[in-house]
Amino acid sequence: MDDIYLKWDKLFDEAFKLPVFDIKNDIIIFSGIGGSGIVGEIANILDLGIRFDKKFKGNETLIAVSYSGNTSETISDVYNAISSGSEVIVITSGGLLEKIANEKKLNIIKVPSGFQTRYAFPYLFTPLTRMISMRRGIKLIMEELKDGVIKARDKVIEESKRLAELILPSRIPVFYSSRYLSIAKRFKQEINENAKYPAFFGEIPEVNHNEIESYVHGKSLSPIVIESNEIDKITEEVLNAIVIKPYFKSDLMNISSLLMLAGLSSFEMAKRLNETPDKLYNIPTARKLTSNLFRLS
Question: Is 162 an active-site residue?
Fold first, then answer.
């Protein structure tokens, strides 16, 4: 799996072929957690009008994304939406969620299995974005996702090494952005899971009114700004931050290329820390305890 992110162009190719459904309602609510959940937040960069409030009245469509199909919080949302009479569309590779979808005759988009959720981003993001953009009447050139991977690949490889060098052995990265906040969050997630290393994220301009003061004593923190707006440059200047500049003018190309950078940077850090990206120490226990809390089987 060492080169999985470098093969995302092929995964996007496969994802373009996945069947999708026509969404019936204008109110579209998203449910997902972790690597499955971030796809909804990133999709909203495209101004798709996705809601995350989980308030079901029966006149909305829930799109539930769980790569494993066993995410307790997402399954609970699906049951609540069904009880309210809402339309439900499921994106999953299997698990309990597939079983529920089949039993309840829900629309299901079955994606290829066998990956860690964070590696499977193309399979989850592509059908989600296609369906919602079609409902909204927004024309997106989905092939730009593949183009972003191909055209930025060499630059991303080099920059991933630069970031790992700047962070390790002892700096704690904090990723900031305004419009690309969800991409900053993705960087944080990738480093947490793949490198088993602390990382955090914050929203610009909010951090300019509080968090930047923490750097007076936060000498071990390493601020990293993902530029997406002019206001991001204020945080850059005040904190003398490391800057990640998007490679393209297209949001879709920036999404795929910057997320590839997040993945490769975390892999590079894992290598230097002698960690195995696929190995999980604490998450399985948290999942089991959460499942017990929701009493799902």
Answer: no
For the chain, the DSSP string reads: -TTTGGGHHHHHHHHHTS-------SEEEEE--HHHHHHHHHHGGG---EE------SSEEEEEEESSS--HHHHHHHHHHHHHT-EEEEEESSHHHHHHHHHTT-EEEE---SS-GGGGHHHHHHHHHHHHHHHHT----THHHHHHHHHHHHHHHHHHHHHHHHHTTT-EEEEEESTTHHHHHHHHHHHHHHH----EEEETTGGGGTGGGGGGT-TTEEEEEE--STTHHHHHHHHT-EEE--S-S-HHHHHHHHHHHHHHHHHHHHHHTT--TT--SSHHHHHHHHHHHHT--
Residue 3 has pLDDT above 90, yes or no: no
Domain(s) of CATH 3.40.50.10490: residues in the chain: 5-136, 143-272
Q: Which of 153, 171, 272, 287 is catalytic?
A: 287
217 carries an active-site annotation: no
- Report whether pLDDT(297) > 80: no
CATH number for the segment(s) 5-136:
3.40.50.10490
Question: Which of 159, 193, 211, 227 is flagged as catalytic?
Answer: 193
Q: For position 2, what pLDDT does the model report?
A: 63
This prediction's pTM:
0.96
209 is catalytic: yes
Express each pLDDT in 262-289 by its tens digit: 999 999 999 999 999 999 899 889 988 9
Q: Given 209, 217, 230, 295, which residue is catalytic? A: 209
